[in-house]
Specification:
With 191 residues, the chain is an alpha+beta fold. The protein has 2 domains: 93 residues, Winged helix-like DNA-binding domain superfamily/Winged helix DNA-binding domain (Arc Repressor Mutant, subunit A); 81 residues, no CATH class. It is built from 10 helices and 6 strands, in the order ααβααββααααβααββ. Strands 1-3-2 form a 3-stranded antiparallel β-sheet. Strands 4-6-5 form a 3-stranded antiparallel β-sheet. A hairpin with a 2-residue loop joins strand 5 and strand 6. Helix 3 crosses helix 4, helix 7 crosses helix 8 and helix 9 packs across helix 10.
């Protein structure tokens, strides 16, 4: 089931409002000056009804507002809303939250399922780098954090998965999933 949060819906409305060349031009014009529907229509060579349609989409996203002035509604850009959306959704801390419901391990599970036999041994060591990384992330879970292993112990663990323990051992070191020093191997916690 794909559920969309209120924050995600607001972001979708925002991008849909800006996903049109005419509306982007209108935002650019309104960033400089306030305009009526008729003025925008003349500037953009469009009918007032078309401009009204675009303004309603921008207003639904909270990007423009209108005030009555004589016989006309005059529209202006809501710069604070635009800045707030940019700050809320596009900061370094907020961007990851947009994908918070995505299963980050789905790719690894698929690769592992594709490469493991029913007896939990590898059919082969993947040649593709991304797939190899997924397999190595799976294999490293067989090692406890902080516990030191000698080479024979590492080979015993890896031999449960594949006979080429030397390649697997080297790759675990190369991808920095295991650390090696003075003949000892260990898995460090990532901070």
């Amino acid at each position: 089931m794909n559920t969309i949060s209120t924050q995600d819906e607001r972001l979708v409305v925002f991008f849909k409002a800006l996903a049109d060349g005419t509306r982007l031009k209108m935002i650019g014009l309104l960033a400089q000056h306030t305009y009526s529907v008729e003025e925008l229509a003349a500037l953009l060579h469009l009918r007032p009804s078309t401009i009204s349609h675009h303004l309603s989409r921008l207003a639904a996203a909270g990007l423009v507002s209108a005030r009555a002035e004589s016989y006309y509604n005059v529209y202006r850009l809501e710069e604070k809303v635009l800045e707030g959306i940019a700050e809320q959704f596009f900061s370094r801390n907020s961007l990851p939250a947009i994908a918070s419901e995505v299963d980050a391990d789905a790719y690894d599970r698929k690769v592992v399922d594709d490469f493991l036999l029913p007896n939990r041994r590898l059919k082969t060591i993947p040649a593709q780098r991304k797939k190899r990384e997924a397999i190595l992330r799976y294999l490293v879970k067989s090692f406890e954090y902080g516990k030191q292993y000698d080479e024979q112990q590492v080979n015993e663990i890896l031999s449960q998965f594949h006979d080429d323990t030397a390649t697997l051992r080297r790759e675990l070191i190369a991808y920095r999933l295991l650390t090696r020093h003075a003949g000892m191997y260990w898995r460090e916690k990532k901070e």
